[in-house]
Amino acid sequence: MKKIIIANWKMNPFSAKEAEYILNGVKKTAAKLKKTQTVICPPFIYFNNLRKIIGKSTILFLGAQNSFWEIEGAFTGEVSPEMIKNSGGSYVILGHSERRALGESDEMVSKKTLVCLKTGLKTVVCIGEKVRDEQGDYLAFLKNEIRNSLNKVQKRFLRNLIIAYEPIWAIGKKDAEAMLPADIHETVIYIKKVLSEIYGQESALAVPILYGGSVGGKNAGEIIKDGGVNGLLVGHQSLKPENFNEILRSVENI
Ligand code: 13P
Question: Is residue 96 annotated as part of the catalytic site, yes or no?
Answer without folding.
Answer: yes
